[in-house]
Amino acid sequence: MTNLVQRSAFLFFLLLSASCLSAQTNDPDFMQSVGKIYVAVGVILAIFAVIILFLIYLDRKLTKLENQIKDHE
Amino acid sequence: MNMGKEIWNLLRKDLMLELRMGYALSGIFLYVFSTVFIVFASFIQLPNTVWNILFWVVLLFASVNAIVKSFVQESGNRQLYYYSLVNPVSVLLAKMAYNVGLLFLISLLIWAGLAFVGGNPVRDPELFLLAMFLGSSGFAITFTFISAISAKADHNATLLAIMSFPLVIPILMTLVKLSANALGLMNDTGLQKDIILLCAMDGLLLGAALILFPFLWTD
Amino acid sequence: MVYQTWWKALGVVLLVYTFIAGLLIPLKPGISSVHPSNATAGEEVILEIKGYNTFFTQSGAPLRAWLKMDDTHALGASEIEIVDNQHVKARFYFPAFLPDSGRVRDFTLLLDDPFNGTCVLPSAVFITQDSIDPAMGKAQWVNAPIKGLHANSRLSFPFRNILKESIRNTYFHVPLWFSMIFLFLFSVAYSIKYLRTGAHDHDRRAHALAVGGVLFGIMGLVTGAIWAKNTWGAYWSWDVKQNMTAIALLIYFAYFILRGSFEDPEKRARLAAVYNLFAFVALIPLIYVIPRLTDSLHPGSGGNPAFGSDDLDNTMRMVFYPAIIGWTLLGFWIASVVYRIETLRDRVLESY
Fold first, then answer.
1. How many domains, in total, are found in chain A?
2. What is the rounded CA–CA span in Å between residue C330 and residue C324?
3. Does residue C27 belong to the interface with chain A, where contact is any CB pair within 8 Å?
4. Which residues of chain A does C215 touch, with a Cβ-Cβ cutoff of 8 Å?
């Protein structure tokens, strides 16, 4: 179950960053358009991505711990 | 026994040990000359800006190699014996004083080596010597203390490098600026401020090392 | 503290406020571009001015425009035509001689009306004079004194020409740095506590806070890189503050590696605490001294690492300070979760 969550979260992050990157490469002025609002959007997405990655790290740590307890029982 | 005498005796002991082993010291000198040789074999023509930075980088790596063995060359039992015999702080101070001298010597050698092969770009030798002295003290204090930590772990050479390089970056940045002035690459009016800053950083690190060392050796 | 809920809830409330206020409050009206941006002295030019967030048709009173050379010299527009809310055409006549001894001189454009307030574009137009004669320039100059400017009283953030909407990153990038510093400070404090008492719990707290601090440092660097790329043109510009954060991260990575190289928990805790303290002392000049001595691209640099009133107005402060508290509380929450997991793991390792 947790494995599935991890994978989907990771995939989600990859898609997110990929969409950001492709939007950037197709149009060099994209980040400068609409009064540079996409710079703020990019920053918030980056924070989101780092927190998600950290959540995955914590999740794996907890899974290991749970397995240890389960093995002992 | 007062502390000054203790430090002096320990210093003499370190020096004797080094001279008796011989190969460690000559290894460092060989390292310096081969590095200088490689630098010139690959650069041939060395611009002064690069000379300035290379000098400090070569010194940085030479110091790591020179200091890494500070706390591992003698066995743990013998060190415990020193600690019971004298004040542990004087052991640290003696090692630091020894390393300051060693690094200053190494930096003189690097200077001589670089000047011999590629000419001497230093315009203001006094300032450069001052930068070299402040630099070797800063490096020696930091590396000696960190080597005391890393000596407790395996792979201590790698650990010493990764733990101490980030710590000496502020010192290194100020040193490069100072020696750029000595080379005439830059004409800074606020030179005093940089010198004071370097002295303050050295003093701060020394103070922290003295306060923290008692927590290190108690095993 | 670790198991209490109120401060976590407070952090969430403050962050929600930060996101809502920080993203929804509009920018002040401003000028995004002027065409043409070059002219020669003695010419009559119609400037096409493009506004941002402006409502020129609702001006309420005649729109006024100036080209300002310095505090005492300004040219007034002879005729202004409002095209639509975002576009205005202004006609200026430049005298044949400027009261200035340079060949090229930059002029600041000002627009003013009661509804939009004053919009400013620094160095909007560059005027080239072929023959230089400051005395003639002074004699010919028809000065239009700038007075009776209106302020925009609606709730809004300042308009900065190079930042535009990305000024909102003040609430999503800058507080991350504050939060990182707070977390590292508390980590150092717990290291001191550990060395004084030897209680293993303090070491776990110091470690967890360092993990939180590193996380915020990474976020600060990533968000800073995105912002820097679109403001200064490069992801990494070797700025003092970027270097400082990078060095702090390197130190704490070394701290984690140091912890990983010991099996004995007592030895690990003691050496890690000593390194944490020593590293913090080495960081002091980097945080407090060097930024004051060197120039930085960051605002408020060169003598004062804090924000000046130019960078942060009162409306921004209303969001910025809660943002700092909110992000810091989030950091402590994350650190407390790490601490609880570590405690649990140690307990599991002990009992089995």
1. 1
2. 10
3. yes
4. 50, 54
CA distance linking residue C301 with residue C308, whole number of Å: 9
Domain end residue (candidates: C97, C124, C140):
C140
Mean of the per-residue pLDDT values of chain C: 85
Per-position pLDDT tens, chain B of length 219: 577 777 787 778 777 777 777 677 788 888 888 888 888 788 777 788 888 888 898 899 888 888 887 777 666 667 667 777 777 788 888 888 888 988 998 899 888 888 887 778 888 888 889 999 999 999 999 999 998 888 887 767 788 888 889 888 888 888 888 888 888 777 777 788 888 888 988 999 999 999 998 888 776
**Structural domains counted in chain B:** 1
Q: Which of B167, B194, B197 sits opposite C282 (nearest CB)?
A: B167
Bridge partners (DSSP) of residue C125 are C107
Same domain (yes/no): C295, C195: yes
**Residue of C170, C179, C191, C182 whose CA lies nearest to C277:** C191
The answer to whether the Cβ–Cβ distance between C257 and B155 falls below 8 Å is no
Domain limits for position A54 = 2-72
What range does the domain containing B8 cover?
3-217
Contacts of B152-158 spanning 24+ positions with Cβ under 8 A: B152/B216, B152/B219, B152/C262, B152/C267, B152/C271, B153/C258, B153/C261, B153/C262, B153/C271, B154/C261, B155/C261, B156/B68, B156/B72, B157/B64, B157/B68
Q: Which tens digit of pLDDT belongs to each residue from C273-299?
A: 999 999 888 888 777 766 666 666 666
How close, in Å, is residue C340 to chain A by CA atoms?
11
Residue C339 in any domain: the answer is yes
With a threshold of 0.95, does the pTM exceed it? no
Q: Which residues of B touch C268 (CB under 8 A)?
A: none
* CA angle (C124, C130, C132) in 5-degree steps: 95
Q: The domain that contains C68 carries what CATH number?
A: 2.60.40.10
Q: In whole angstroms, give the CA distance from residue B140 to residue B88.
A: 18
CA distance C144 to C122: 18
Domain that holds residue C262: 6-22+164-351
Which residue in B170, B150, B168 sits closest to B159, CA to CA?
Answer: B150
